[in-house]
Amino acid sequence: MGTNSSTEFSTVNLDNVNNDYVSGDINQSLVLVADSYPDNSELISQLVADLGYFVITVSDGESALQKALIYKPALILLELMLPIIDGLSCASYLRASGNSVPIIALTTLPNSLYEEEAFLLGCNEYIQKPFDFEKLETTINRYLRKSPLIF
Fold first, then answer.
1. Whole-model pTM?
2. The CATH number, out of the four listed (2.30.110.10, 3.40.50.300, 3.30.70.560, 3.40.50.2300), of the domain defined by the range 19-143
3. Residue 27: pLDDT band by 50, 70, 90 thresholds?
4. H-type helices in 51-126, by residue range?
């Protein structure tokens, strides 16, 4: 896989989309993927797109917060070691601002050190990398609680 995070099959460019449209039907199937490693981001985005959901990808915590607040995704897949603002701080900020979007932490950090903190700061799930794709797929579908879109 390449390192281009704007792959047509997996992402939705929302920069030029009317926010009224985004706050309508699309946000119910919109997944925000925040990962600082382009290969990981592309791989996760491909999985999410293959499940039939729309994807926004970002590579740092500041962008993750901005996109989460503007586009109100139905689910956030959040790397904890993001640049600028780390994933734990992003989760904490979203919860403090009243945002209840489900957050799945995807991380290389060991469970024994960070899992409890991730839950305390607002993450709903903690999946350690390298992750099992079936487990991630099941978890995504469980939180979105609907059938994926058919294209």
1. 0.80
2. 3.40.50.2300
3. low
4. 61-71, 87-96, 111-120
